Amino acid sequence: MDNESENNVISIRTRKPLGAYINCEVIPDEVPQKRKSNKGKKSLLPSYEWEFKPRFRRSAFGWKSHPAITRIKQAVTEIKKVAKKDPVIAAEGAVILLERLSSAIEQVDGSSGSIGSAVNNAIRELVPLIADADADPAVRNNWLERLWDAIDQDDIPYIENLGDHWGELCASKELASKWADEMMNAVRLAFSERGGFFKGSSACLSALVFAERFDDLWQLLEAERHKMWHYQQFGSMALVKQGKISEAIEFAEGCGGLNDGLSVASTCEQLLLEAGRYEEAYERYAHVVNGENSYLATYRRIPRSIRQLGLREYWMI
Fold first, then answer.
1. How many whole angstroms separate alpha carbon 147 and alpha carbon 145?
2. N or C, which end of the chain has less CB nearby within 10 Å?
3. Could you write out the DSSP letters of every residue in 213-281?
4. Considering its fold, how many domains does the chain have in total?
5. Residue 226 domain flag
6. In the chain, how long is the greatest CA-to-CA distance?
7. Taking the CA of residue 306 as centre, how many other CA atoms within 13 Å lie in the half-sphere pointing to its CB?
8. What is the rounded distance in angstroms from the CA atom of residue 34 to the CA atom of residue 21?
């Protein structure tokens, strides 16, 4: 690589004109402007004494995962308890936890996957609390700014799945569209032939789906070279939002790499179940989604899954 090319390599650790890029060859005047940092941005709501807050400071936990997992579960329980009385304060608590979570558990040994699962479960429970809170637009935008900073600074990363729910977190088409506009140039660059990685790609795609800007979404997905299910799943979501269930399943089956089969099958099965097409879901995907190391173990697991889905009467199991 010549000296001129070396000067055009953007690194998250050095020049950082776009904070979430890593080693992308770009022409400087084509680089979208980095969002202004909101590090240290304060809440717009009255202070609330959260029991979990002092427990989630930087490097608060050692290498053992069990104490961290226990504290995460306790924090989520505390937030959900407050949500019964004051949903907006609970949503603020959820944002505080997500802001502090990654740095607090950065020393935890994640090799078993248990701490990652605990974080993902917490995200699944906290996102609806934030999305459903009847907050003032300025308060919600404050939450989003703080959550974006948390994602941008999430180096391991632990909370990257939060971006998949960005449209839901915006809670309005107008706000989702605003965030999508701010991120689209960065996503285009990351998906271009010059390539790169942008932490906000999923957030942008999620916002486009929520804002129902389907043409912009398809343009970005077509530009994504590797056709990764992590990004292409938003195309399936867009089709579902338009009521095109069969088309969404057909699109999903045509996406994904060698390691995406289970994720694609799980998505397709869930779409069919939600549409009431139970027999088709069983015939096409049950054996993949419930696959075990042996045929016997697989066929023992399928009835358990059917009962968990509440379809016991339908299948007479």
1. 6
2. N
3. -HHHHHHHHHH-TT--HHHHHHHHHHHHHTT-HHHHHHHHHT---TT-HHHHHHHHHHHHHHTT-HHHH
4. 1
5. no
6. 70
7. 21
8. 10
Q: Rounded mean pLDDT of 215-232?
A: 93
Does a structural domain hold residue 151?
Answer: yes
**Tokens matching residue 254:** 């045509």
287 within domain boundaries = no
Nearest Cα neighbor of 36 from 124, 152, 207, 154 is 152
Q: Which of 265, 209, 264 is nearest to 242 (CA)?
A: 209
The model carries a pTM of: 0.83
CA distance linking residue 77 with residue 118, whole number of Å: 13
Distance CA 204, CA 198 (A): 10
- Asked if 269 contacts 285 with a C-beta cutoff of 8 angstroms, the reply is yes
SS3 for 114?
helix
The H or E element containing residue 207 is helix 201-210
User: Nearest to residue 75, comparing CAs of 103, 47, 95, 58?
Assistant: 95
| Tokens at 114, concatenated | 């248990």
Whether 120 maps to a domain, the answer reads yes
pLDDT in tens, 116-133: 999 999 999 999 999 999
CB 251 within 8 A of CB 235: yes
Domain with 161 in it: 53-169
